[in-house]
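Readers of this paper often ask what the protein records in our data store actually look like. This encoding replaces a full spatial description with a residue-level series of whole-number codes. For reference, a complete record is included directly beneath this paragraph.
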Amino acid sequence: DDDIFSSAFCENSEKLINVHLFALAAKYYSLSNLGVCTPLEDVLEALKGDSEGATGIKPDEFMNNKKSHEVQVMSELVDNIANYCGIKQVIDIGSGKGYLSSFLSMQYNLKVYGIDSSSSNTNAAHERNRKLKKHWRAYQSRGTENLKSQSLEKANDRPVENEIKCKKINEELLNNANSLQNQDQVIIQDLVPSCGFAEMATPATNTETEADLVTGTQSHETKLSEEVLAILNVLPADAVEDFSSSHNNCGELCEEEKVLRKMTSLKTKARKSSESNLYFPLTSCITAETELKDIISDLEDCVMVGLHTCGDLAANTLRIFTAKPEIKAVCSVGCCYHLLSEQFENQEECHDQVWGFPMCQYLKDKGWCCGRNARMSACLALERVAVGQMLPTESLFYRAVLQVIIEEIYGVTKSDRHVGKTFSKSSSFIDYVRRSLKKLELDDSKLPDSCIMDYYEKYKHRMNELEAFNMLKVVLAPCIEVLILLDRLCYLKEQENIAWSGLVKLFDPVKSPRCYAVIALKNQSCS
């Protein structure tokens, strides 16, 4: 009840007088308590997502625990959304180094375009994806052990000579897969373009030649099982070719093996031009007005996703989704609320600007504003603090005292420069202040060590006060996050072309504090 909770504050001074009641009120208005979220299990069930997951690589072997958890959960959901909508293309906004994109591509056979504004991130994504694909084949072969045994069982029904040939090809290829990948000529680089998105054309004669070869190998003795072909296909075409030419007794190979290897090479090359499980890292700055067709020439019906899209990018992801007919679904997890632009934070009018908050008409009509301090608080992690991962009180204290120094000594109240993670590199408070002043391009020569320590001693007794204040901010954090997330959900509810939209708790909040996804499906294609 609002009247009960209001008594947490003094009616006259408006100061907090009842911390316990304040905490209860914050819990009452948190997202987990309001009952507006749709359980992930219900969403997967509605999408018919209870089928067995894809076998293959485990993300925790290539990522830290936090990223592995996020990628594994979100990629399963995105795959189910794509299947439900009958589409194979995914656009990953703010893709960073491509953790989610590459996993969606290789694990779920989706064609993924990862778009990030940072060219260094895109280059890192290219390199990471190249290395990942190099290992991916080995993981695939592990997952096909059942396929291998099935191939051998089927071969038992054939003449003994054919059985020996199949078994030899099968086992030799699997046993040599790792050694082949270590050779320069068979490192898997060509599956991902070296620079952005590129067309990969295959001559039409390849398909015709393949058809001729298939026609000429229809007899009982020369037709090998599809399972053996599948095992061969885990290697790239050039690996198969080099494997054949590396043997001195190549002329002694039976015609059946020669034809098989040539077929496999042609099949693999032809598949490269049309296969969907590819990942293309692209560099571009995304805004609400971005024309995706200018970035992706083969744009088709797709799902738009974003894993921890920063600041306004989360809001712009939803705006692009509602505006572009090709985008049939969206799954967006935002972060960095403190970087959101707010329409009503400043007095000056900017009619042409697209703001990060508020998005929905309801809050716009009310002229709602959070303010930077509230948005900063929304980034705090209550669940982590609850399990003992306390706030970095000392670094926060250093930063607070530094603020006083630069205001009183240098007269600076606002700067476009940032101190960053200076605390972890500093040996003392004096070292911290001097490092920070250099980053802020302020002359530290006029500030003696004794003066710096005087400020430290002056405010040292207030460190407990600072810790208590920050704990109150932590308690309030979920309420501010609720406001931002419900604003985005209300924006989707206001659109006419949305079949369903909701908030879904995807992640364990201790592992990943920004754990809520905004999900929506459009009417026309997902019915």
About this structure: Residues 158-252, 266-276 have pLDDT under 50 and may be disordered. Residues 387 and 510 are 8 Å apart (CA to CA). Residues 389-460 form one domain.
